[in-house]
Automatic annotation (TrEMBL):
Keywords, alphabetical: DNA-directed RNA polymerase, Nucleotidyltransferase, Transcription, Transferase
Any single GO BP term: DNA-templated transcription
Transmembrane segments: none
Catalytic activity: RNA(n) + a ribonucleoside 5'-triphosphate = RNA(n+1) + diphosphate
Protein name: DNA-directed RNA polymerase subunit omega
GO MF annotation list: DNA binding; DNA-directed RNA polymerase activity
Protein EC: 2.7.7.6
Length: 109
């Protein structure tokens, strides 16, 4: 095993993950929803960048193919959405609220 490989498994303190919600399952749902949002945003951005290559389907230019490959590779090197969402959650960058709290706030006006 090479020591130069990037480690994707990062030990997390469960108590840190539970602290904002009081429940590991709620934390998991919040992180998962944010990770899906990040992944959708990344996919939309990648699709926009690759769209110009899709329009020129008849002409196969090696320079365009190389640029398309480079764009795709740059997105593959980005942090995984779940890792980014976990980082955001632990740093307090994700705002969440419970449905019953939102309903009560809306009904009290």
């Amino acid at each position: 095993m090479s020591l130069n490989k990037k480690l994707y498994l990062v030990p997390r303190n469960v108590h840190e993950l539970i602290a904002p919600t009081g429940n590991i399952y709620e934390t998991t749902v919040i992180i998962t929803k944010r990770a899906k949002h990040i992944a959708m945003h990344m996919k939309e951005e990648l699709d926009r960048k690759l769209e110009e290559f899709m329009l020129i389907s008849d002409e196969k230019d090696s320079i365009d193919a190389h640029r398309q490959y480079e764009i795709t590779q740059s997105y593959e090197r980005l942090p995984k959405p779940v890792l980014e969402a976990t980082r955001e959650f632990l740093e307090g960058d994700i705002v969440f609220r419970y449905m019953h709290d939102a309903e009560q706030a809306g009904g009290d006006s």
